[in-house]
Amino acid sequence: xxxxxxxxxxxxxxxxxxxxxxxxxxxxxxxxxxxxxxxxxxxxxxxxxxxxxxxxxxxxxxxxxxxxxxxxxxxxxxxxxxxxxxxxxxxxxxxxxxxxxxxxxxxxxxxxxxxxxxxxxxxxxxxxxxxxxxxxxxxxxxxxxxxxxxxxxxxxxxxxxxxxxxxxxxxxxxxxxxxxxxxxxxxxxxxxxxxxxxxxxxxxxxxxxxxxxxxxxxxxxxxxxxxxxxxxxxxxxxxxxxxxxxxxxxxxxxxxxxxxxxxxx
Length: 265
Known about the structure:
CATH architecture of the largest domain: Sandwich
Number of helices: 10
CATH topology of the largest domain: Jelly Rolls
Keywords: DNA-binding, Repressor, Transcription, Transcription regulation
InterPro entries: AraC-bd (IPR003313), Homeodomain-like_sf (IPR009057), HTH_AraC (IPR018060), RmlC-like_jellyroll (IPR014710), RmlC_Cupin_sf (IPR011051)
Organism: Acinetobacter larvae
Order of helices and strands: HEEEEEEEEEHHEEHHHHHHH
CATH superfamily of the largest domain: Regulatory protein AraC
GO molecular function: DNA-binding transcription factor activity; sequence-specific DNA binding
Radius of gyration: 19 Å
Distance between the termini: 30 Å
CATH class of the largest domain: Mainly Beta
Protein name: AraC family transcriptional regulator
Helix content: 25-40%
Structural class: alpha+beta
Strand order of the largest sheet: 1-8-3-6-9-10
Shape: globular
Largest sheet: 6 strands, antiparallel
């Protein structure tokens, strides 16, 4: 049976740790992105796959904004919370610890159509499946595929520092905001040099590189949802489409068209 639950009810309605199977999957369709799943953890590791729309996952010191055809990997026992975009279609794949070798740290993985299809199929099956059944055999194939998925640099380092959280929230709400570092510093009653040092200390990036990373992740989400390159460039406040494509290609090594074509292979 397919599990279609509101994001804020999913953990209460479905506990993956109740099942000893090596992997179980859950499908969620979310109509309202003002719903946020509170901090929680599982014995099983969790792969959060966005098939339509996107999902933001927060863990300690980082925010993972997952565009379609990507998944964020959350190791066993790690505290995290999730928030979805409007009309998102999300799949959770829960994996028993140590059944396969997965990264020890949270990361984003690029998914191909085969793996996405297997996770989608598994989410439609009874989670209490027999290991010798067709579902059990498919799970073994799926688990063989996952460790080879490439890691994508699609996370935004954040911190618990209130001032950085304030800037992050403002930029996520309006990614076209071009407020300068000096102006942010003025709003926060700090010197520009002190704020620059704080951002680098807390995120490992300069302010400019940090904001660019946010733009990149939001661009991937919007492009995946069918918006044109021109529209996305405007949404992010770029003066020209060429400037946006240059940023995208510098960050990911390919133009938006080339990047999304490669995901379908």
